[in-house]
Amino acid sequence: MDKKLRRFLLKPLARRHSASDRKALVAALERLDNRSLGEDILAQLQDLLSEMRNDRKESRWKNLDYVTKSVGLTRALYMSRRISTQEYVLLATSPVEGIHESRITDGHYDSELEPLSKAIDKVREAHGLSTEEYWSIGEGPEEYTRLNRQYSAVLDRHFVKALREFKLDDLANLRGNDPEKFAGLRERGRRSVFHKEEIVPALRDIVVRYEEDARKAASAGAFSAAVTLLGAGIEGLLLLRCLRSKQKSCRVAQKLPSRQRPRSPEDPTKWTFDNLIEVCLRAGWLPPVSTAVADYNSAGLAHLLRLMRNHVHPGKHVRERPWIETDERDYKDAEAIYLILLSTLGHIRSVAK
Fold it and tell me: Beta strands of the chain (E only): which ranges?
């Protein structure tokens, strides 16, 4: 075939919507520069903080210099990509929370808080509550609820002000504009720092986020991404099932034929998708699913979704489905398989709309 004709017949079907221009390249280089600067600042701040670590622990959070350097260290860790956004929210705000709480205890905000506190006490007394009694959150008269909201608003305003005092304007804006998102990020950071060993609840969270992200991707027409995420979600569900009965899973894995046996039979988190399917099948956790029309092999369905997910690998995709786009029909098939296996594995939950 003539080369010009061949080039014409194979002209690109998919094109980038926007080529990399000079502005985008400059922005990319600046982002990498920020990472490098973060590394330099990190080394300097670690030296400065090491000089202050002999202070008594309880006095650190009243030491403005220590808190300033601690916040700076956390920002440097974040800039150099040593910590995640969620960990940054936790670690940057924690020392500021300490300063804020010490100021509450020391009476810095009493001029605003005391009148509200006295008014709250009067409402409680009027309803026969002692000095040790309080209404539960959401209970009590309307005036009590209103005064408590005002009291909390004063504390919130001063906390946001403290964040700005330590140059955490990004977190101050987030805390002021979207406190729910701020709280969610902080809680994820807390769990990441203090509950790293809690594998099962963390895995459940990951699987649910895969499900949510798959729906978001599909709604945007990104069906390749959606199918890939559903495949990852099934792998997570299989792993959860194995972890629920870890001893049995490991015994079954040890008895698999050598070509199917995991390299680390004692640790299901290191098993491949294939390994997980075979273990769950042999353990009896992937029974057949029957309808009035046909009987379906649950393990076969899991393998089918695994194969669809594996098209995320370009080499496999170009070998098996060159030129073929993953479309809505593929996604709907993957979603149906996911829901069936979700039910079979005993992890049914309400599906967000």
Answer: 289-290, 295-296
